[in-house]
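Human: I would love a firmer grasp of how sequence relates to backbone shape in proteins. Take your time, and here it is.
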Amino acid sequence: MLDDKKTFDDPHMESLLPAVTFSRRGFLASSASVAGFALSAGPVSAQTAITTDAEGIEGADIKVAVSGGQMPGYIAAPAKAGKYPTVLVVPEIFGMHRYQQDICRRLAKVGYVGVTFDPFFRSGDLTKISDIKEVIGKANSLADNVMLADLDALVDMVSKHKKVNPAKLGITGMCRGGRTVWMAVAHSKKFKAGVSWYGGLNPMPPAMPQTPVNIAKTLNAPVLGLYAGADAGIPVTAVATLQEALKTGNKNSKASTFILYPNVPHAFHADYRPSYRKPEAEAAWKEMLAWFKQYGVA
C-alpha cells in the first residue's frame, strides 16, 4: 500500500508495477501534496472552484522517468478492482496543479483512470511563479518533440498499471494542453480519441514550429475541439481554417469536429478562474464523455 508520502515511481521494471496499489489514505495525502492553484492564473474564484471528494475513488502522486529527470504526475482511479479506460489530462501553461488533479478525480468518479503530469518540470514548478510573463516564457520554451517523448514515456508507464486498460486510452487538455492533444494524436497511435479544449492554433517557433493545421490531415484518432466564440487569443476564423484542413485529411481527420460555444471566453472550463462559465463548461464536459464513448475509450 502507498503510505502518506510514497509516490508511484517508474523503475522500468514491469513486474513491479502490478504490486503498486492505491489507498484512501494515499489519496487524501496526494490531494494535499499540491499547495493550491497556480499563482500566475490570478485570484481563485472560491465560489466556483470544484473540489471532488474521495468517495469511491483512489489516487496517488506519480513520477515518470523521462529525459532530464523524474516528471511529476498524479493518477486517480475507481476504488473497485478492475481494468478501466484511461484519459490523460494535459495541463495549461501554468503546469500541474489542483485543477488538473480534480479533473482526474472527476474522471475517476465516472469510471475512468485519470492521469495528469507536469510537462514543464524541467523549468521548475511553474505553479509557484506569480509573474505570468515568466510562466509563459518558460512554458513556451518546451519543445514539441520533448513534450511528445514525455507523453510516450507516460503512456508506457501507465499502460502497465493493473487498473489501466491500455486498449482504451484517450487524451484531453486545456489551452496549451489542448494544443498538445492535436499534436499527440497525430504523433501516437496509442490514443483512441482526443478532446481539445480551446487548444492554441498559432505557431510559436522554435519550440513549437508547427500548428494543429499542419498535422490535421494525418490524425491517428478522431479529435473533438471545444472552442470559445469570444476567445481573444483564438479567433473563430482560425478555428474555421483548422476545420477546413481536417476535411481533406484521412478518415480520422474527417471524423473530427468542433463545438463552438458563442459569447464565452477562453478558459471557460477553468472553474477556479473568473473566465469560468458553468452552463457551457458542464455541457462541454458531457460532450467530451460522449466523444470518448463514441470512439471506444469508454
The beta strands are 57-66, 69-78, 84-90, 113-117, 164-174, 193-197, 223-228, 257-261. The chain has one domain: 14-294. The domain at 14-294 is CATH 3.40.50.1820 (Rossmann fold).
